[in-house]
Amino acid sequence: MEGRVTSRPMAKKNKEKSQPVEKPTADQRTAMERVLLARHSDRPYTLDFIERLFEDFVELHGDKRFAEDPAIICGFAKFHGLPIVVVGHQKGRDTKQRSYRNFGMPKPEGYRKALRVMKLGEKFGRPIFTFIDTPGAYPGIDAEERGQAEAIAYNLREMAKIKVPIIVTVIGEGGSGGALAIGVGDQVLMLENATYSVITPEGCAAILWKDSLQADRAAEGLRLTAQHLHAEGIVDKIIPEPEGGAHNDYDQTARFLDSALSERLAEAVSCSQEERLTRRYSKLRQFGRWGTAGKGTASTSTE
User: Fold this and answer.
1) pLDDT value of residue 16
2) Per-residue pLDDT tens for 55-77?
3) Which range is least confidently modeled, 12-26, 143-157, 207-221, 241-255?
4) Per-position DSSP letters for the chain, written without gaps between them
């Protein structure tokens, strides 16, 4: 029969010659491989972590100006018995949910809702946990008409002044201003295979080389991985993931994250309010660096 293997000795010989292909370890992964893991459709989202990390979660809706935005989850909860506020991007699992959540891309009302809830947290003395996982802020005409850029900029300013501790965790994609709008905090953590960048590798490649197929090259140049950003001092701690990625074991990933959040919250609470705000503002200002390639000059902060 055509296509059927009938020679057992030959099959055995080929089996002996074949060598097992070693999968790259976490340290060996390229930047683009981590980008793909950060985008994995089965990766845990904000609601998955809320279910595993917090108790008595009560979601709050709407910005009290225009509408509700399902792309951002906000609410009150308890973390090891401590009343806290949770804010995070939320993507969808299936087509219907992705459409409802707008693929995790918030509109201005989403960012205004997030700030409204954070202000409530400040009023009642509740520490704030934010979870970043978005390809970016929604770029549609309706979002621009309602002041997308203003909403993001306003959040940056106001989050820098909020008096309670803010712990930020990048759990998946950290896309540009859409991520930074809930990303100003005392501590910035990242899951091992998360990314944080001003632009996607594909977008960068299309601009620089007019070829989105150069995304691998762009990903390396953008230095968007947790490892790169930790070396630059932008990220304070890298949280390990289970073997193969966070999508393989939500519970284990949550345990790693629980430990890191407890540690960093204790550190943020230990300093005075004035010192905490000074450090937070300084951290935000250190995000931008510039330098001259090939001149032997070190990168300089924007301060």
Assistant:
1) 44
2) 999 999 999 999 999 999 999 99
3) 12-26
4) -TT----HHHHHHHHHH--PPPPPPGGG--HHHHHHHHT-TTS--HHHHHHHH-EEEEE----SSS---TTEEEEEEEETTEEEEEEEE---SSHHHHHHTGGG---HHHHHHHHHHHHHHHHTT--EEEEEEES-S---HHHHHTTHHHHHHHHHHHHTT-SS-EEEEEEEEEEHHHHHTT---SEEEEETT-EEESS-HHHHHHHHHS-GGGHHHHHHHHT-BHHHHHHHTS-SEEEP--TT-GGG-HHHHHHHHHHHHHHHHHHHHHS-HHHHHHHHHHHHHTT-EE--TTTTPPPEE--
Residue 78 counted as domain residue: yes
Cβ atoms 138, 105 nearer than 8 A = yes
293 has a pLDDT exceeding 70: no
CA 296 to chain centre: 33
Looking at the 3D structure of the chain, how many domains does it have? 1
Q: Which of 43, 203, 221 is nearest to 132 (CA)?
A: 43
CB 85 within 8 A of CB 128: yes
Residue 293 in any domain: the answer is no
Each residue of 78-95: pLDDT tens digit? 999 999 999 999 999 999
Q: Average pLDDT of 168-193?
A: 93
Radius of gyration, CA atoms only, the chain: 22
Give the pair of three-digit tokens for residue 108: 């201005």
Range of the domain at 123: 27-288
Q: Is residue 301 part of a domain?
A: no
